[in-house]
Amino acid sequence: MAPKTLVVNEAGVYLSYIDSGAPSKSPYVTIFALHGMCFTGLIFKKVSKLFLDKGFRFVAVNRRNFAGSSPYTPEEYKELTTGNDEQKTAWVHSRGQEFTTFMVNFIQENDLPAMTPDGKSGGVVILGWSAGASLAIAALSIVDSLSQDAQSCLSTHLRAFIAQEPAPLALGLPTPPKNWAPLRETSIPEELRFKAFAHWITSYFEHGDLSKRELDSLSYVLASPLRPPSIYNMSTAETDEMLQLDQAAMSDLPFLFNLSNQLKVAFRKVCFDPVTKKLLPKMSITFMSGTMPPAFGPAGLWAVESEQKEAKTNHIHLKVVPGANHFMHWDDPEKAVEVYLDCVKL
């Protein structure tokens, strides 16, 4: 699967993606996947192959500033890091509009089948993994600002949004007091923090009794020896092509830390605003976490559960995957496909 690009606005901004191609039978379901920090969309290549074998199309998109996609302009980076609230809100809107335009253009150019009346086939799914869930939410939160043609396209096609282990921070929600990650650990030499992060985030963690939903029961720092980190299941060639540890990946830090208010507004609009539900009536929403990722996985799921209780609704599906770490789609791709399909509920 050679990477391709698709231009998403008049300024010439483009997004890179890999596409499994259309399966032999139609109508079929297409999955748009958004990667997290440091790892590009190639992290999904194992599940992409499995999905194609099952009659699905899989499209993994590289977010802005990652390999093959447009870098941020100096002006965009300045707004991200030092902009005022109005500029930050516009920044989130622009990133969301870029991805919605990508989806609509891809749907129309490839004549993707719409969701069938019985709901058993057709349509598209958005899979936002880790920080990728933030971009998915930004996109879904601005659907009401799109053209009628774009709204109609997404209304008939969008069947599910799956958020796989976004941290509370990625949703604009409060970070647990004990939260820890190598990227912000000053005792680690700066030039080693991304490498340390790649080992830490791919590890397995043994937490306490997750059924109690207690933040103090989570293991924030020390990984478990039960299974090696997922990065040890990657060859040097694989890490060279999909692990991005340069300054481009660093833009995710201000994205998550500086835009928390904007991300929270977007998250609540997508999940609890009746306007969104009216525009995307067929879209189900699932937040999921394994039992062995870093602490932000369960913490994010519990934060969404609290938000749902406060909103006095129960339409968001909350899913726990026993034994899975943050890289289920790499270490256990067959299980990942099974879990994703259960979320889509075909």
Automatic annotation (TrEMBL):
Keywords for this protein: Hydrolase
InterPro entries linked: AB_hydrolase_1, AB_hydrolase_fold
Annotated ranges, domain AB hydrolase-1: 34-337
Highest taxon in the source lineage: Eukaryota
UniProt-recorded Gene Ontology molecular function terms: hydrolase activity
Pfam families: Abhydrolase_6
Name this polypeptide is given: Alpha/Beta hydrolase protein
Source organism (scientific name): Lentinula guzmanii
Source species taxonomy: Eukaryota, Fungi, Dikarya, Basidiomycota, Agaricomycotina
